[in-house]
Amino acid sequence: MIDFLLTSDALMALLTLTFLEIILGIDNIVFISIAANKLPENQRSKAMNIGLLLAMAQRIILLFFVSFLIGLKEPFYTVNLSWFHAAISWQALILFVGGIFLIYKSTSEIHEKVELPKHDENHLKKKKVQSLKQAITQILLIDFIFSIDSILTAVGMTNGLHPNHNYTLVLMIIAVIISIFIMIGFANPIRKFIDSHPSIQLLGLAFLILIGFMLITEAAHLSHTKLFGNEVGAIPKGYLYFAIAFSLFVEFLNFKTVKKLNK
Predict the structure, then answer these.
(1) What 3-state DSSP class applies to 143?
(2) Side-chain half-sphere of 195: how many Cα atoms within 13 Å?
(3) Which residue ranges does UniProt annotate as crossing the membrane (predicted)?
């Protein structure tokens, strides 16, 4: 286990996944802050911390559930046409549906942030919260919605890293724990940084589109899908890491350029 976690692939996956979990958690922090701010001043920090810790437990439970479904590799249905062949398993089906969901969610989130940036915040502000228990319940419901793309992202980033799926599950859990504790400790500074640099969050959503496409091709590869006699291959995760690193490097250069212009 330790040997696997110290490999370059595992460390790269852990760093990238933790970064994406934090980026994806920004909206979560904003909505949790709105829910907590409806409480008296002395209860707000408590509500946020308890809510995020329970959210972490919720995500770990979801990871176990999704990982169980991903482990079902035996085909339960085979499609065999003259131009199309696929041996569909639960693993391939979950990855395919997850990929479609990530692409849809990312595209709709990008559209909403560009066209209707305050829509969800305004909707949430209208909901009444009268007690700490109600606030934590609302926080958990909000986090459950945001957990879906977070969990699917984790699966996409770690699937196939090791033959033993328990190893990748541990890696995903570590990334979730690190990201949640970073969000607990630096929630406000992170939120302020993203507010002043919204392109970072849009970049994170764009990464989700890449991960969604990778999940779809991974599902096709695992189900031995053939289109017109050509089998669909898997996309090496190194390509994904390079795309993310290159995009962040370009964004860093953009920050430096904007700073110089402002001076």
Answers:
(1) helix
(2) 9
(3) 12-35, 47-70, 82-104, 135-155, 167-187, 199-219, 239-255
pTM for this entry = 0.67
Exposed/middle/buried for 176, CB within 10 Å: 0-12, 13-18, 19+? Answer: buried
Tell me the C-alpha distance between 96 and 70, whole Å. 11
Residues near 144 by beta carbon (within 8 Å), at least 6 away in sequence: 58
82 backbone dihedrals φ, ψ, rounded to 5°: -65, -30
Q: Which residues are CB-neighbours of 147 under 8 A, at least 6 positions away?
A: 55, 58, 59, 62
Taking only the tens place, the pLDDT of each residue in 50-90 is 877 887 888 888 888 877 777 777 888 888 888 888 888 88
- Cβ-contact 212, 102 below 8 angstroms: yes
Which residue from 48, 27, 29 is spatially nearest to 39, judged by alpha carbons? 48
Closest to 146 measured CA to CA, from 14, 38, 30: 30
To which H or E segment does residue 177 belong?
Answer: helix 165-196
Task: Read off the tokens for 152.
Answer: 């699917």
Q: Are 47 and 36 in contact (CB under 8 A)?
A: yes
Q: Which two tokens stand for residue 97?
A: 């549906």
Distance of CA 142 to the CA centre of its chain: 15
91-137 confidence digits (pLDDT tens): 788 888 888 887 887 888 788 777 765 555 555 555 555 577 777 77
Beta strand 230-231 pairing with 75-80? unpaired
- Phi then psi for residue 79, to 5 deg, are -105, 125
Beta bridge mates, 88: 77
Q: What number of residues does the chain have?
A: 263
The 3-state DSSP class for residue 86 equals strand
Structural domain total, the chain? 1
Range of the domain at 171: 2-262
